[in-house]
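Section 3.1: Structural characterization of target chains.
Under the original work plan, the team committed to producing a structural model for every single-chain target entering the pipeline before any wet-lab resources were allocated. The record below documents one such target. The sequence was received from the expression subgroup and is listed exactly as submitted; it comprises 388 residues.
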Amino acid sequence: MDSQVSKLEQIEETIEKNVDFFRDYWDIIFGIGFGIVALYLHYTHSPVMITTIFATIAIGSISVTISEIAEILAHRFGEPFGSLILTFSAVAVEILILFMVLLEATHNPEAVTAVKNGIISTFIVDLNALLGLAMFIGGLAYKEQNHNEDTSSSYTTVLFVAAAMLLVPSTLSVGHNEENVFHASVAISILLAVFYIFIFKFQTKTHIHFFKSTARSRIFRFKKQQDVDIDNDYFFEKKSNLVNAIALVGFLGFVGLLSEVFAKDGITLMKDLGLSAGFAGIVIALITVAPELFTAIKAAKNDQIQRVINIAMGASTVSILITVPTVLFLGILFGINISMDFTPLQIGALIITIILAWKTTDNGETNYLEGLSHIMLFLSYVVIEMFY
């Protein structure tokens, strides 16, 4: 009888260990597994729908791994290098996918539309889907959540200016030749990059207090006390900075390979299904924002709405100020001139999103109704992009 009980305990312990292992490493398992299958299907010319689905799951999963490794390195290096690592690891995935899609423009002009919409859609997803869902979940759990209003005030000011800057090439596209519009796009891209240099200094040097919570969450304090004596057995947590840096670069390279598969088969699939290239941009955005979305929801559940605001608005700022100039200059490097003349729908959605984010965060409090408002705006944008 005792031996049977002992065996049952061993089985339960084994199952628990396997569950814990899967919970810690599901992203790597899915990312590498689905990624290898996607590459095989692509190079054996299998149906594009299956290939695209496998590549999408793989990219999303590996993006979560990249985010986790970046957070470990950011914690070790501290500020301002921590923010730099987090920022560029997040934007690297977005740029890789957009660049691979852009390369398809040489024989598929719709790819340019998908890239432009991918840039705007990432912004829309960050400030509506991510922020809205986190606000909604956090609001249902705590009714109201408090954050530092200086954070949202600073970010919305920057985003208003960035949106106005993007209006320049869009305005010139009416009644001017393509060369003038392209030159204006280059000039605006340079200004956006310079603008971000000063914003980065503002965030990490002169006004750090603007981006910190004014009152720490009671749950966060409790969890922090609980976690003090807990050893983290996560593989990358135990590795050196050099190993983590190499792993980060390696996973980014793998995402690059998968992005090529997604770019070629994904655009073809969208065309076969009769979906617009604009809708392809939304799919790109959802893939790239996936890691941040998981992090934001977890933070909202722990009553850390300040972290949610930093993630959503910080990522939106980077999507405009870094992604736009990087994609444009990479295009020039590879002989593809892409003008940043966005459609009235895209600019309109951009400005309405900024206004809504400003109104829902300006008083330093959020609730589930405000979160639901962001979600409804995002879903409306998805509908119009499907049929536009």
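DSSP finds 13 helices and two strands in the chain.
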